[in-house]
Design brief:
Structural class: mainly beta
CATH class: Mainly Beta
Order of helices and strands: HEEEHEEEEEEE
Domain Peptidase S24/S26A/S26B/S26C: 74-193
Radius of gyration: 25 Å
CATH superfamily: Umud Fragment, subunit A
Protein name: DNA polymerase V
Organism: Nitrosomonas aestuarii
Number of helices: 2
Biased composition (Basic and acidic residues): 1-11
Helix content: 10-25%
CATH topology: Umud Fragment, subunit A
Distance between the termini: 83 Å
CATH architecture: Ribbon
Oligomer: single chain
Region (Disordered): 1-24
Number of strands: 10
């Protein structure tokens, strides 16, 4: 009698080591839906990989309120290393309206709140407000607000080796990976980030 054949103990791939990192099960689906299910699972896996740390709090899309009477505050011509110069020092160069400084096109501009630390190397910290202008044409190297598979993120627009767009984080810790845009990815650049601001107190 042959000892060959049959399943060997501990043979095959260890549990949880497959594409999805967990146990799988067999199900029966209509043959016509096989590709649709496969595409859904691929998109789900990309979402898990790319959006473990979101960069934008989408609950806070804020429209700037532009006053008919701008608030213009003193802008000093001298750089301040520590302390604050007195207006009596006669260093006031002009008066600056904050909205005018931050906003180029009021009709196409809005603010969003940063969530996560994927862009901290560029000074974008959690709870910062970023200024997004939808009227500007994005170019390589711009910080953009993008929609990838129905999720918002703020990243640097770049091209990969295959000339396909990719979205790059700015965090030298290595905790965040680039988001590669594949042909079947739902992708839109929602606007270009033109500035940011925060409060300390």
């Amino acid at each position: 009698m042959s000892n060959r054949g049959g399943k060997r103990e501990n043979a095959g791939r260890p549990s949880g080591q497959g594409k999805y990192g967990e146990l799988t099960t067999t199900i029966r689906i209509p043959k016509s839906q096989r590709d649709n299910i496969r595409h859904f699972l691929d998109a789900y896996q990309r979402k898990k990989e790319n959006f473990s740390h979101e960069a934008v709090n989408v609950d806070e899309f804020l429209i700037p309120a532009i006053s008919d009477q701008p608030t213009r505050l003193p802008l000093f011509s001298t750089k301040v290393a520590a302390g604050f110069p007195s207006p009596a020092d006669d260093h006031v160069e002009k008066r600056l309206d904050i909205s005018e400084f931050l906003i180029d096109h009021a009709d196409s501009t809005f603010f969003v709140t940063i969530k996560g630390e994927s862009m901290i190397d560029l000074g974008l910290l959690p709870d910062d407000k970023v200024v997004v202008d939808r009227s500007k044409t994005p170019v390589i190297g711009d910080i953009v607000l993008a929609v990838v598979d129905r999720e918002f993120t703020i990243k640097i627009l770049d091209y990969g080796a295959n000339k396909m767009p990719r979205l790059m984080p700015a965090n030298s810790s290595g905790a965040y990976r680039p988001i590669y845009i594949r042909p079947d990815t739902q992708f839109e650049i929602f606007g270009v980030v033109t500035g940011s601001f925060r409060r300390f107190k």
